[in-house]
């Protein structure tokens, strides 16, 4: 009788880790809708490369466009960094999930 109980206990002990182990948490990627769109750089007017340069109004217009672009980039940068941070967290969570699955097989 004791041998039977001991045998049953050994079988349960061998099976218990697979049942007692918690489910592996699957990684969830960041929502693609939160990916920021990089502003388009302003097109350089052809007159900048010309020998005589640009007329004043065109140079001022291009300068204003560059200033507006710089403001857009300044607003874009923290959004892009936050998205990269979310992507890196996803990569880590994916790795943790894979390691959990490997351990579950052992």
From TrEMBL:
Protein name: Uncharacterized protein
Organism: Methylobacterium bullatum
Record's signal peptide: 1-22
Keyword terms of this UniProt record: Signal
């Amino acid at each position: 009788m004791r041998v039977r109980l001991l045998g049953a206990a050994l079988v349960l002990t061998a099976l218990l880790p697979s049942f007692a182990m918690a489910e592996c948490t699957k990684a969830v990627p960041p929502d693609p809708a939160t990916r920021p769109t990089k502003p388009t750089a302003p097109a350089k007017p052809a007159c900048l490369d010309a020998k005589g340069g640009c007329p004043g109004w065109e140079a001022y217009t291009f300068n204003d466009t560059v200033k507006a672009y710089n403001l857009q980039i300044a607003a874009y940068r923290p959004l892009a960094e936050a998205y990269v941070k979310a992507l890196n967290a996803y990569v880590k969570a994916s790795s943790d999930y894979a390691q959990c699955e490997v351990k579950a097989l052992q």
